[in-house]
Specification:
2 copies of one chain form a homodimer. Helix content of chain A is about 70%, strand content about 0%. By secondary structure, chain A is mostly helical.
């Protein structure tokens, strides 16, 4: 896949999502402005892209997927808005732009995060489908993978892991990666499958595939922090070691980390290739995502 | 209705809700402890009580209402947890107990609020019903009334109204009361009706009735701040005037405020009494709620 192809796909995703953003008007204007600022601030749009590609692979048709693409991006965005708050990571910049609390204020950023999480469900609930069981099934996946048994659970464990007294072993690190990162990727891909009418067996395979993608992505992150350069990565390397942060590499070593990324990504692609209809763009996307150099 | 009857009903509601709380275990333990602390901290359980009574009035049967009773209380609770944060109202105590951020820390309170909002949808989505259209309809009401076009919108307007440059008139004050307070009462009562299979016409009447209850409740709040005593109210009176806060009484005067409470509550009770089957406990509850002395 060329850079242009990926850029075109990303643009399509953004055009779809932006249609579902609330209008910044009325008494709610301050919170809606902050919500939309956060969503429009950019990003790879990876989750809605994976969702749409899996939906296409299983022969999904119509607009039912669009509100869910928007919902998953809103949930991802709210998690960043709240993570960046002074009481959490205290980050003033993200992707070269001011974070929501730095651009507006803390109070507005808390409300905007709440607004995005709530509006994600509100939007997904508007999905037009005559097949309500699919809708409810997709919503249940969304809620579970975003909540305390998914992303919020991962965020909780991550915060605990940063405390000086914590003892992070491989098992705990995997819990964090599985919940903080893989859970929303699982939700994205599973919902794409559910709304296209995939079977339970296929959905279970997609869940496993998305797990591998999420974990491999995070291990690759840890690897790049050791092996890359400032020039390639665009941010300082060695930051994990400097911050005394336990990573997959510091626990298992570089060699095993590389082997695991290879194994996890090969398994993920093998699962994708095992379905009746293949989606070569999706396979390439996963390949690039995991084996990226920055 | 006697005090004992109300206390018994409240206890029943709490026993129901507590069954649906997540177990504080695993890596998620810190966030779940804070979530449950917040829910267990008490309160009148007004919203789930109204929901259940309307459900009963329309002849609703079975446990389908329970997850929604839990969900509405969780949403109400998360809104308090986030409102109490230092960046918002900066309150250390509520109902004589430490607020969530004061008991744990800011970071945990932000996550616990997010966790409660998400878990509210997760719980409601577990409601067992063979009639999926009712489930989706109830979820849509929940999401809308809790979000930017409901409670979060009201909270946004309230924060704006507290800024020195704001000019709060009667219309703006009504917007705040309608969204910040009435919206969740509407959700509670409408969902009770929807899940009992009420008609669209009945649901519209219930929405109007709940609007009246919410607004009258808030006006009564403003009246008591002027007319009550420290002994009866259990908190200092005159605090609105002291804080230069525009209230219904300061805008419309005491007499019109009292008239409006009377009119709104009579209308609300008349609507409740207009349905085929009456629920006298509900009518008395509304009567007491609005005409309370503290």
């Amino acid at each position: 896949m060329t850079k242009q192809q990926l850029a075109d796909k990303t643009k399509q995703i953004e055009e779809t999502i932006y249609q579902y953003l609330p209008k910044a008007e009325g008494e709610q204007k301050p919170v809606i402005e902050a919500m939309n600022y956060s969503v429009l601030a950019g990003g790879k749009r990876l989750r809605p892209m994976l969702m749409k590609e899996v939906f296409d692979m299983f022969g999904g048709e119509g607009k039912v997927i669009e509100p869910f693409m928007t919902a998953i991006e809103m949930i991802h965005t709210y998690s960043l808005v709240h993570d960046d708050l002074p009481a959490m990571d205290n980050d003033e910049y993200r992707r070269g732009k001011k974070t929501t609390w730095a651009q507006f204020d803390e109070c507005t950023a808390i409300l905007a995060g709440d607004g995005l999480l709530n509006f994600a469900f509100e939007t997904a609930l508007q999905a037009e489908t005559e097949n309500n069981p699919y809708l409810v099934k997709a919503l249940r996946i969304l809620a579970k993978k975003a909540g305390i048994y998914g992303m919020i659970g991962g965020q909780t464990a991550d915060i605990e892991a940063e405390k000086p007294e914590s003892n992070v072993n491989g098992e705990k690190l995997l819990f964090i990666h599985e919940h903080k990162t893989a859970a929303l990727i699982q939700a994205s891909m599973m919902i794409g499958a559910v709304l296209a009418g995939a079977s339970d067996e296929e959905i279970t395979k997609i869940e496993k595939c998305a797990y591998n993608i999420g974990i491999a992505f995070q291990i690759q992150d840890d690897i790049l922090d050791v092996t890359s350069t400032l020039e390639v990565l665009g941010k300082p390397i060695g930051s994990d070691e400097k911050n005394n942060k336990k990573t997959y590499v510091s626990i298992y070593g570089l060699e095993k980390s590389k082997e695991d990324v290879k194994r996890l990504s090969e398994e993920a692609i093998a699962i994708l290739a095992s379905f009746g209809k293949r989606n070569l763009f999706l396979e390439e996307l996963v390949e690039q995502l995991i084996n990226r150099e920055k």
